[in-house]
Amino acid sequence: MKTIAVLGSTGSIGRQTLDVLRAHPELGRVGALAAHGNAELLLAQAREFHPAFVGIADEAAAAALRPYLPAGTRLAVGNEAASEAAALPEVDTVVNGVSGFAGTEPLLAALAAGKTVALANKESIVCAHKLVDEALRHGGRIVPVDSEQSAIFQCLSGGSYGEVARLWLTASGGPFRTFSKEQLRTVTAADALRHPTWNMGAKITIDSATLFNKGLEIMEASYLFGIDGARISVLVHPESIVHSMVEFCDASVLAQLSRPDMRLAIHYALTWPERAPSTFGALNLAEAGRLTFEAPDEERFPSIPLAYAALQEGELLPIAYNAANEAAVARFRAGEIGFFDVFRTVEYAMAHMPHGTIRTFADILETDREARSLAEKAMEKKS
Ligand code: NDP
Ligand code: MG
């Protein structure tokens, strides 16, 4: 029986991971839970799953939680708590469902401790890719949870690495797929939060509307599978049923299909290297009817070309791309900047980053900080 740490347990991925474990208790027991500040839900989860360890980043929330935790549950408080959960000796598998850059240190901590990481948090691999190969020497591994990467991971078993010609990442296109540039000028965060096919946390939902999510996934795919940017393409597929594809050198393309339900990808990551029956609903293609595909519009969504540029530089720019986007998404959600300001902010931060090399986690932190401050400067200029 595996022992599983669920990082970001109160979020969309975390809650769905617990759904999977509730429906399939044979997959493992919950050894640790970690969240940022949602004490109420974290407490309910701790009472249900009885983990030995609970971590919470926010101190005020910790005070509300402490008196009510079940006996035998240890509480850790602060930003390090998720990393501590990730490295606990009794934990075999870490589900990284933390949102944003905060997932980076827990990924490295889990790998340094030799754990299997079921990775939903894409920002971490984008920011820490220079350190991941070294971290993997401790015997850990990464099994992707992000649906596109899970699809590619599954399709790759249909051929050898040397036979791969191209990765095709599918994208729903988000709520603004058919909007003109004129319409995009006035869209709000509330509009962006109405995603047509997936129900996810707020940050990734905004990223799906700007296609920064796909930009991050271009880099994530490159780092997870060792394929350069020139051999990664994006295809808009509004039905979100084909989760991604691998084209092989003989021009055969393998695709992975399922209903758009993250519990399927989480379930696969937890049963891998085997498959096991799941209870999350079979795909009915006759009911789905038509599956459509179109090329992404890089003019309306410059997040895509910016991602290829960041990937090509491969040192500071992937971190800057992510950091500036996180800063801009926060301001867009607050109604302080417009839709196109998000792209302009990231472009500005990337253009003004110095040259450099990432060697340590401190370099990553420093680069993240610098890019956020450039992003703030870019946004000050506009408002
Ligand atoms: P949510 O915003 O729904 O949840 C984020 C979780 O992270 C919450 O539990 C939050 O805690 C926790 N958290 C935030 N900061 C910290 C911290 N410093 N320490 C510990 N926990 C922290 O996000 P999602 O679940 O949507 O996304 C999580 C990750 O998975 C993202 O990287 C996203 O890109 C990726 N992903 C998500 C998909 C989805 O369907 N949701 C699909 C594919 C990838 P609290 O609630 O207490 O604030
Ligand atoms: Mg995805």
| Spatial order of strands in the largest sheet | 4-3-2-1-5-6-7
Structural class: alpha/beta
Helix content: 40-55%
What profile does the largest beta sheet have?
7 strands, parallel
> Which residue ranges are poorly predicted, with pLDDT under 50 across at least 5 consecutive positions?
none
Structure description:
The protein has 17 helices and eleven strands. Helix 15 (317-333) crosses helix 17 (361-382). The radius of gyration is 20 Å and the shape is globular. Helix 1 links the parallel strand 1 (3-7) and strand 2 (29-35). With 383 residues, it is α/β, with parallel strands linked by helices. The strands form two sheets. Strands 4-3-2-1-5-6-7 form a seven-stranded parallel beta sheet, with helices on both faces. The protein has a four-stranded mixed beta sheet with strand order 9-8-10-11, covered by helices on one side.
Summarize the structure.
By secondary structure, the chain is of the alpha/beta class. It is built from 17 helices and eleven strands. The strands form two sheets. A seven-stranded parallel beta sheet has the order 4-3-2-1-5-6-7, with helices on both faces.
